[in-house]
Amino acid sequence: MTKPVHIIGGGLAGTEAAWQLARAGVPAIIHEMRPHKTSPAHQTEGLAELVCSNSFRSDDSEHNAVGLLHWEMRAANSLMMQAAEEAKVPAGDALAVDRDVFSAVITKALEDEPLVEIRREEVSGLPPEDWGQTIIATGPLTSTPLAEAIQAETGADALAFFDAIAPIVYLDSINMDIAWRQSRYDKKGPGGDGADYINCPMDKDQYDAFIHALVTGDKTEFQDWEKDTPYFEGCLPIEVMAERGPETLRFGPMKPVGLTNPATGKRAHAVVQLRQDNLQGTIYNIVGFQTKLRHGAQANVFRMIPGLENAEFARLGGIHRNTFIESPKLLDGELRLKSSPRIRFAGQIAGVEGYVESAGLGMLAGRFAAAEALGQTLPAPADTTALGCMLAHVTGGHMSGEGASKLAYQPMNVNFGLLPPLTEAAPRGRKGRIERRRLMTERAKAEIQTWLAGGTVAAAE
User: Fold this and answer.
1) In the chain, which stretches have pLDDT less than 50?
2) What CA–CA distance (Å, rounded) separates 397 from 418?
3) pTM of this prediction exceeds 0.85
4) I need a surface site. Which of 8, 43, 168, 293 has the fewest CB within 10 A?
């Protein structure tokens, strides 16, 4: 038996790392502080709890970078993707899940895995030397004592921003005489039928009044030490977007394109979409409506949306602080801390953004740790793959390394901009862009299959 690898954090990155270690025959110990100590965003003690959206975004592996990442992780025997399959709910061309079922599937899989031990305890400092290999996957809400220990070890301040949570509405409180079901452009996705979203239309006067209410609504006041913390651009509060200009939301989460109101036969001035949030289809989240409005203001402002005038909320929105390290300066190409190579980082604390990206980085950390435990060397996946380009972003492959400015490094969703351009000529224009993306995903799938078949210790089973 090899020495167990310790994993601090039972979120998406930590659970995926443990699963990959076990698949390679290497024991893992997960240290999860809940339920003894919780965070401002978590509500349960389940592993891999989804605290924000219930969507893993697009499942299109030919034209979407996150869909490509889904494909690569399925090929690599990802526990997250297996659980998503069991817990999926209709969501157009996106992959969305019942968050409670999803967490329960992952928790049971790891509880039943003989090579994985789950310890419910807080780790309040850097792991002791006798632990050996350790993966820190504590996510954006790393406890203060551990965060301070990381700062002391690295000699660098962690960066922080706010990550906002969208509200959830009970289906039976939505006025379907006004709202209608339709996916944008009638697209069908996993388990969907092309009518997976509930759409609430607004005319110009309603939209203008809504924008005014958003901008003037009562908002959460931050502590002095929080006020200069930047937001992540991919998860801006709805009212912050509204403050950037009255038309901003009509070109963002409230864009009306691809949707036709059956009551008028026309496209509305703006549309608010809701997406199914559980398997039973009894609750729906308001897409893109993460917010820092106070709860009382939220209820009043969101009931201005046609169709939600009598909305009852299963959960109102919220906001929490997010922390991550300067990974390109601090980590090597295998996610190891340069100053203490027995420690790896994975997930959002390492500077990826998004559920799937966090689990993907956990997958890589688990595979690197398994290879090291078994006395083997695991090459990194090519940066032409979704997994590889994320690793390159985190470890400095796409930056200037030691010379990178602290503010230049920000958490990143997987996207085609991280993938190297095609070497062969490709058509230009919009149709050309679609074809280029298809060629890039085709290249990535071939490369990841080569990597998985290359004798790695954790090859997909």
Assistant:
1) 399-407, 456-461
2) 10
3) no
4) 43
